[in-house]
Structures are given as C-alpha cells and as structure tokens.
Design goal:
Helix content is about 75%, strand content about 0%. It has 9 helices and 2 strands. It has a two-stranded antiparallel ribbon. Helix 3 (about 30-40) runs parallel beside helix 6 and helix 5 (about 70-95) runs antiparallel to helix 9 (about 160-195).
Amino acid sequence: MFAHHMFGLLYHPREEWDAIRKEGAPSLVQVFARYALILALIPPVSLFIGTTQMGWSIAGGDVVKLSVESAIPIAVGFYFALLFGLAFVSYCMFWMERTFGVTASFERCLIFTIYTSIPLFLSGFIGLVPILWLDVFVVLGAVGYTVYLLYSGIPIFMDIPEERGFIFASAMLTVGLCALVGCMAITVVMWGMGLGPQFIG
C-alpha cells in the first residue's frame, strides 16, 4: 500500500492525499520500521558509494574521492540526522494542529511528513552519479515537488479550508527550513572540530 501511495503522489497527488487521509493511522513502530528507516537510507548510502567509489569532479577538475574511513561516520550521521529531522518536523506539525483546531495523532503527522518527503528521499539516488550540476538540478526539482506536495496535501489531509491550509503549510515550510539550517550549522561545527571528510586522489 505504501508503494501504491508513493507512486500515486507522483502522478495524481490530490486524489492520493484523499485516499491516505481516509486510511487509519498505522502504529509508530510500523511507520518508522517500514517507511522511515528504509527511505532514509537512500541518500546516505548513495552518497557514500558516489563519493568513495565514483569520485567527484568540481568544475571539470581532477576527480577526488573520500576515504572510506571518513565517509562512514558522515553517512551514519547523515542517516540519523534525516530520521531526527523527520521526527522533529512531525512533532512540530502535531503541536501546531491544536492552533488550527485539527485533531490528529503524531503517527499521522509522521506519515504525512514521510509521504511529503518522498521526492527528496528518491532524489538521493542521484548521489551515485558524480556530476555536480546534475545532482543540484535533480535535488532542486525534488525540493520544488516536495513543496508542492506540502501545499496541496495539508488542506486535504487535515480536511481544512485551503486558506488555512496555506498558512499551515507555510508554517511547516518554515520549520523545515529552520531544521535544515540547524543541520548545516551542526555540520560546520563538527568540521571545525576536525571531523570533516578526508579526500584522496
């Protein structure tokens, strides 16, 4: 059923959001074990393979690779950062629902966040291809479609008027951007502590 919804959101999102809303909320364990833990593996594993086996070339220069020893902790940290980001955004959504007079469980908020983030997770496969401009293009496209899923899905999923849904979606987009900036700041601090990548020729 998850795969059916996943592809449905890519082809006819509004109808699929309505179908997802009518389903019962799965348990927290089911959501994390079946969906989040698997989808969150795609970007870090793809980037690990791309940076250690394929190598990267910036602006047509020499191809460089990351050492496996330095890439492993980065990939693991990235994986847990994605899971934390999902949980954080879902909790913020759950907390904000009371302001909008909507009753929903944390599990439903989490499943909504996961479904909305599907384009971003799937775009992680592009990390296998060591072409920077292509990677940036694909990720930006995934971000754009994720924003579209957010704004189109909130009113349907929560069964609220589109005007209020727009405000709610904008608030959630702000939360997501803040989480992204926070992750970037943590990354900079870790690199400053000497935990950055080690490049090899």
